[in-house]
Queue: 2 jobs
Job 1
Amino acid sequence: MAWEWRLIQNECTGCGICADVCPHEAISMPREAAYPEPGPSFCIGCMACVKQCPFDAIEVKQLTALPAE
Ligand code: SF4
Ligand code: SF4
């Protein structure tokens, strides 16, 4: 099952909490960056970032499988 996080950029303050709480290194917050970026690993849909973001600036959704041909 694949998951994807998405930033709501106009709500994000770049605080980096999401990157700190992500247990799977799916989000990184480079020191020089204004916003979080994709990390070295993939999202497992744990929702920790969604729960901990103080600004409701991150969404996580499950990717739907492409229809088989
Ligand atoms: S916790 Fe929320 S506000 Fe902070 S960097 Fe992550 S998405 Fe942006
Ligand atoms: S849902 Fe979990 S694994 Fe995915 S980006 Fe958020 S904290 Fe990381």
Job 2
Amino acid sequence: MEINYGLAGLGTIAKTHLLGLRNLPLLNVPVDFSINLKALYSTHPIENMETAKSCGFTEIVDTMEKLVSLEDLDVVDICTPNFLHCQQTLLAAQAGKHIYCEKPLASNSKETRLMVEEVKKSNVVNQVAFVMRFNPAVASAHAAIKQGVIGRPYAFRGELLHSSYLIPEKAMTWRLQKNKSGGGALADLGIHLIDLVRFLLGEIQSVSCLTDTIIKQRKNSEGIFQQVDVDDWASLSLQVEGNVKGTIEASRLAVGNDANRLWIYGDKGSLFIDLDHNPYYPTFYDERGQRIYPDPKLLAQDPFYERIAKLYPNSKLSQGFMVDTHLTSLLWFLSSVVEGKTLDHTPTFEEGNRAQLVLEAAYQSSSQNGCLVPVNHNQT
Ligand SMILES: NC(=O)c1ccc[n+]([C@@H]2O[C@H](COP(=O)([O-])OP(=O)(O)OC[C@H]3O[C@@H](n4cnc5c(N)ncnc54)[C@H](O)[C@@H]3O)[C@@H](O)[C@H]2O)c1
């Protein structure tokens, strides 16, 4: 089957998606569909024409309305700034297109709820790009926890540390404006770990959060200083169902210490995921701190892990963690479209909405000096 694919936006992450999708025929991954790069929606269609054509797109349009009105388009991949996700989703869903949307799902929970309602009404397949679920290290941790390898998990520690905004001269972007992004390091990076905690350990019940904005002003494109009104750094303490507790740190100013790591401690052992260094396998320890190697045959019986292990490009064909992980997440979504049902453990828009509620509780806590705030799951 050929899937007619439409893309909204041609920024950094759209290119990450394209690097994976264009090379799909070379990657020896078992999918029974091919992808036709049918149409690109860009706000700069003239400037992007050559790049888009050389990637293989047959059409370039200058409005979202034109993109979703293409009759034979099957899916829309939304890769635009966060404040646009909601209106673009509504248009795509109303046109009956299946939707893959970058994270965070939107810039607030009013929008994420609207999006959930609309995709349900339109009955379209939907997935938010919580891509970290889709590498073998996380999938095998998911299987191992279910199979009791580390006993009952009781604590965790996650870090997503970038240095992308370290330089004060880096100009103002939509990411640093709350009305366009919905939040800073926490909304941009921390949301991935919020999703992983929910996925691996259970629903988050309450949160205490501290944030800080270290670089308070940046020059805009006219060279005028503008206020940064989002966090550069955030630290969260979370209480998860089943009496699991832990912390998450997210930063855009981590000098010399980029990291993408999660430790989970159980009463019979622990596991450590280090995605930047080994997206294929976590490190496991028993209760005495000895390294252990869970039976691969047992782990392979887990349907989610089994499928991810096959879809994720092998190390010889890797295009790096970012491209591989985004591609596997996209292939998961496209498999749901082809099979006509949402695959188990898909981060649907509903999951995106739940993560958004945690985010909002965290920001509420940070505005109240870190007091404990319950997550209001009634808003789902
Ligand atoms: N899942 C991940 O790991 C991951 C990583 C990076 C970015 N993202 C997400 O991807 C999305 C895009 O991020 P990015 O890094 O590619 O940003 P970017 O700034 O590099 O690109 C944004 C794109 O949107 C376009 N755009 C801007 N305004 C527009 C408008 N009004 N209408 C249509 N298009 C418009 C820009 O021209 C550009 O092509 C964000 O939601 C971001 O959070 C996710």
